Amino acid sequence: MFVYGLADITIGLLSEVCDDRHSEIIPCLDRNLIYQTRLKLDLSVMEHYERHCPLPEKRYNCLIPPPPGYKVPIKWPKSRDQIWKANIPHTHLATEKSDQNWMVVKGDKVVFPGGGTHFHYGADKYLASMANMLNFPKNSMNNEGNVRTVFDAGCGVASFGGYLLAYDILTMSLAPNDVHENQIQFALERGIPAYLGVLGTKRLPYPSRSFELAHCSRCRIDWLQRNGILLLELDRILRPGGYFAYSSPEAYAQDEEDLRIFRAMSAFVERMCWKIAVKRDQTVIWVKPLTNDCYMQREPGTQPPMCRSDDDPDLVWGVPMEACITPYSNQVHRSKGSALAPWPARLTTPPPRLADLGYSDDMFIKDTELWQRRVEHYWTVFGQNLESDTFRNVMDMKANLGSFAAALTNKEVWVMNVVPEDGPNTLKIVYDRGLLGSVHNWCESYSTYPRTYDLIHAWTVFSDIERRGCSIVDLLLEMDRILRPKGYIIYNDKRSIAEVIKKYLGALHWESVAISDSQLVEQDEDDVVFIIQKKMWLTSESLKDSE
């Protein structure tokens, strides 16, 4: 537990700046840590790209510096197509993927033409073609609001997800910290939702039945390995009637090896009860069943097996993947689908899975209304500090039902809704509202690059951390790591902890913007709303470079 009497000592340590070579450090995805600790990992199943966090005594107790010449990021929507080169000074992808139009260096900027490994001529044309293949009305990928959340595996610089935003579709773009190590960093700098992760041995940090569409465009994943366990993980996170769009050489079988792989993959997903929705040119799209009927009609002993009845498909934090099919609940089977309203009505319509948590529709509606009032209060406290484009990437550190994010839907932002792994498993409600998020343990570092969020909302997170006996100082350092210079924190928690945080403001290069009594937002008497801004600061090396 954090000891307040040690505050002065810790403040001195916090004033230290990490070495410039740590400007992009991701503590739980640090390959140098793996080498130093000599972890015995199976590289063939991507264990080296999974989370491995340092012990408390090995953590970086210093501020992560920005790279030389760092500038305040370009604002959305311009950022979708261009960023400052100095902010991510890695241009090897522009050379390596030059034939695929991923990105182009132009002067002091990196420009994104919208290309990808399988859509050199632009994601917009690729998406229109995919919607046409699926006979979606008006060739629109949102299918009249019935496609809202998408998962993109091996996403590159996330142009696929970036162009889906125009259809009111949110995409969880996922890639590991691999040889293309900065692809997720580019995605987030562009203002596109993204997460550092890998289809390896652990379940992805998303609940079952979260996405209407999964996508892989030459994502270099061996889908048949380990009894098809990665396909079965996709099956777990796809909704009833969800699609898997697969654009790859195997899909159009140019040689014997491609043909062999595609035949084996087709036979496997058929046993999973997937059917081919459409196959055209270099893309095949499979569709998942709406009910359990096909599963119940399979011959005894058919592989892959059904999951055990006691397996919880929504338990994901650090849980190994299972090579089995997750059946639907009785409610889904009877409804012949998720029974979710189309977007945007989905955001405020109580979803059926509320009953899994013992929550009523009335509780959901009241929570939505409460957070609408709280967000209005936050914006009042901000006062004249806000412009319409102040925020793009937003994180809610304790999202509960996602109502904070729901209150922001009239703004040009996206929200990473984080649900703590030790609390109620509400992330499925977040996804059922048409929002994105992940499970996380705030005693550890988050799976993202430094300087990726414009606004961090911390509602009762510090009280939770204190109760768990984890370090408040470590949490402050982690928030500083992922917050962009000039970015903001909304602290909504106990006054006593806010007073402690105030002692660290100078060391962290943070400044107080405003403080307000939380009684105005219907909370405990000793809670306060505390608005903090991170200052822009540069190291001596950065200053030399920018002069």
From TrEMBL:
Cleaved signal peptide residues: none
Gene3D superfamilies linked: Vaccinia Virus protein VP39
Top-tier EC class: transferase
Any single GO BP term: methylation
Keywords tagged on the record: Glycoprotein, Golgi apparatus, Membrane, Methyltransferase, Signal-anchor, Transferase, Transmembrane, Transmembrane helix
Membrane topology: Single-pass type II membrane protein
Pfam families in the record: Methyltransf_29 (PF03141)
Keyword Oxidoreductase: no
This enzyme's EC code(s): 2.1.1.-
PANTHER family: METHYLTRANSFERASE, SAM-DEPENDENT METHYLTRANSFERASE
Family, similarity comment: Belongs to the methyltransferase superfamily.
Name of protein: Methyltransferase
